[in-house]
Amino acid sequence: MASGKAARVQLSDDEVDDILYLTRTNESTELQQYLGQLSQQHNCSIAALLESSVDEDNGNTPFHYCAANGCADLLRTLSSQLDPSTKTEVLSRKNEAGNTALHWASVNGHVEAVKALIDSGVDVWVKNAAGHLPVFEAERAEKDEVVATLLIAGGKEDEEKSRAQEGEATEEEKAEVDVEAATSQMGESSLEK
């Protein structure tokens, strides 16, 4: 399928249930095989299948189940198969209760799933229908490592935004400048020999 936004696919209830079941049970190999079969059957990308796999009863996605069950490796694998232009949006989808995959990973204390979601660019400041942030859910559930991870990620995000607004170089821009400076110094020292 061409790059760009993956088209929604009309999946049967059984197909969605099978995708969600294989995700919940962390059956990575079987899930990948099944997604491959469905991709051929529906003539679509795996990204389109993943974007279309939403439980009609509660709004949960495969990413909610990966996060809730701490399946960080499967979460990374599936998120890598998403269309880059919609990846963050898909990973940030809210279920019927307004919870994102990050809320579920946080409340259940799955720090590696939390890190995978943060690395994929999800918003750590998103609130659920009750008005709770993922960090609040983690703190209430006494998941201290997740709380620390979210606070660090949120702090870095806020610091980067603040620096950008003040016209200061971001950490990424500083790293680029450091590399350029080191490269030019290496060139100068090799000429002096």
Structural account:
The protein has 193 residues and is an all-alpha fold. The chain has a single domain, classed as Serine Threonine Protein Phosphatase 5, Tetratricopeptide repeat (Alpha Horseshoe). It contains eleven helices and no strands. The longest helix is centred in the last third of the chain and has 23 residues, at 144-166. The radius of gyration is 20 Å and the shape is elongated. The termini are far apart. 34% of the residues are buried. Keywords: ANK repeat, Repeat. Residues 168-179 have a biased composition (Acidic residues). Residues 183-193 have a biased composition (Polar residues). It holds the Pfam family Ank.
Short descriptors:
mainly alpha, Serine Threonine Protein Phosphatase 5, Tetratricopeptide repeat, elongated
- Write the CATH homologous superfamily: Ankyrin repeat-containing domain
Instruction: Name the overall outline.
Output: elongated
- What is the CATH architecture assignment? Alpha Horseshoe
CATH topology: Serine Threonine Protein Phosphatase 5, Tetratricopeptide repeat
Q: Let me know the number of strands.
A: 0
Q: What is the straight-line distance between the termini? A: 54 Å
Order of helices and strands: HHHHHHHHHHH
Mean pLDDT, to the nearest integer, reads 86
What gyration radius follows from the Cα positions, in whole Å? 20 Å
| Helical content (DSSP H or I, runs of 4+) | 55-70%
- Sheet-strand content, in percent, reads under 5%
